[in-house]
Every structure is written in C-alpha cells, then in structure tokens.
Structure of YdcF family protein:
Amino acid sequence: MSWAPTRPAPSPAVRAAARPRRSSSAGRWVRRVIAGSVLAALVLIGGTAVRVWQVARIDDYSHADAILVLGAAQYDGTPSSVFQARLGQAYRLFGKGIAPLVITVGGKRPGDEYTEAAAGKMYLTDHGVPADHVLAVETGSDTLESIDAVAGAMRSRDLSSVVLVSDPWHSMRTRTMARDAGLDAWTAPTRTGPAVYTRESQFHGIARETVALLWYKLTHFPADFKYTAEQ
C-alpha cells in the first residue's frame, strides 16, 4: 500500500492575500460598467446634437394645409425681435403660396394685454396677410402645449399637414412633437434674428435643444428655456 503525502492547508496569511485579487477583479468590472455607461451617454447626447444640427439646416417648402409660427415674447402687442424673425419667415412662405393659412400660437403672461398669438396675427395682417387667412390659437405657455393646441384646432378644421416656423435649432423638437400629435409636419425655419446671429447663440441653441429634446423623449414633458433675453 502506497502512501501519498497530503498537501498542507493554506495558512490564514495566504488566504488573506488571495482576497484582494477577487476584490480587484470586481472593481475592474464596476469601472468598466461605469465607463461603458458614460460612453453610451456621450454617444446618445452627441448623436442627438448632430440630429438637431442636421434638421436645423433643412428648408422644406413643400405645400401644406397651414404654416405654423411658434410663439415668442411680445411687448404690449409688439413681437420681440425673435418673434419678428419667425413671423417674417411665415410671411415669405405665405407669399410663395406654401399654404393658404398661417397659424399663430401662444398665450400670455399675467399682466399682458395681448397673447403671443394675437400679437403675431396683428403683425401679419399689418404686413398684408388677409385676416381671414390667419388663425390665432391663443393658448400655450410652452412648445408642447402650443403644438397640442394647434393640433386640436387643425383637426377640427380637417387640416393635417403643417410647415413649422421657428428658430433653426428648435426645428427638431417642434417637428418631433407635431408628429407625435398626429400632424404631418416638416420645417422651414427662419434664418434671421438673434438666435442665428453669432456662433455663441448657435452653440447655445444646439446645446439647449439637445437637452430639451432628450428630456422630451424620455418624459414627454416640455423643457422650454429662453434662447435670449428677448425671446
């Protein structure tokens, strides 16, 4: 009968030395997961910013049922410079025969005499657009409320297609919201006004809309912040 020596059990010191290796391996996996999550977030944010920039460059002059001007600040019935730039683009589109109806939208703040929609309609009619070709939807304190109000007004008139007029960087989000509301929507943004004057305002607009669009897609809540002090 042969005899084989038994291996001595590892000492407590040896067992203790082995534990940090397992802990170190788990730490590496945690770091990899965190790094992967950060990378995925950066790709998502970067991809969204690119889409905001791409859609901002689109000018689609296809014929539609209506031209929608997204509201902005007005002062006692006088549109702000941002709002005037949008209204000017809508006026040009109407003159080209893109649509037979211009829709202005937007409510008013406490203390205001006029709504954004009413101020926009007055501006357009003062510049020669017939009053019966302008519909003022006098509600909405943010983009989502405004889009939903316009979608309801259009459906009640059997209208379904719309050209959206806003600042270039706002185009992607407004188009997304309009399509979610059941409208056949495309964009022809203004190319003038404070939102497009400088590289700084352009970068600010893209960054702002990237965050706002991601927030909307995640929550379906609005995320409206000012582009400029005059908006």
